[in-house]
């Protein structure tokens, strides 16, 4: 089995996206290829205006973790944890590839020009799956 990793991000909650990017960074640091596919609610982290403005407005958690939101906001402000944008830039530094779901972009009325420069490619799920053939796939 391949050690290369494909991660499909569906959720837009900070905790899930953060954990997925942490897995991506660990795999990249081990010398593996990593391709990430962002779809639906996870796209909010890849929009220029959203990601470059008030990050705290994007800080959402799954229902069970809403208790931790204030704590995470403080940790982010104090620099104890990284923002999603910082983690994405680290992934790119280690040669991770970022794909965005074309269908989700159409559904949410997002254009390619609105995406952060770290995005490598817009694609449908079929194209993405064909490009990660043989990779281990995680759905987050």
Looking at this protein, list some descriptive labels.
140 residues; alpha/beta; Hypothetical Protein Ychn, Chain: A; 6 helices; 5 strands
What does this structure look like?
This protein is an alpha/beta fold and about 140 residues long. It has helices at about 15-30, 50, 70-80, 85-95, 100-105, 125-130; strands at about 5-10, 35-40, 95-100, 120-125, 135-140. The protein has a 5-stranded parallel beta sheet. The two termini are about 20 Å apart.
Secondary structure: elements and pairs:
Elements: E1 5-9, H1 14-29, E2 34-38, H2 48-52, H3 69-78, H4 84-93, E3 97-101, H5 102-107, E4 121-123, H6 125-131, E5 136-139
Parallel strand pairs: 1-2, 1-5, 2-3, 3-4
Helix pairs in contact: 1-4
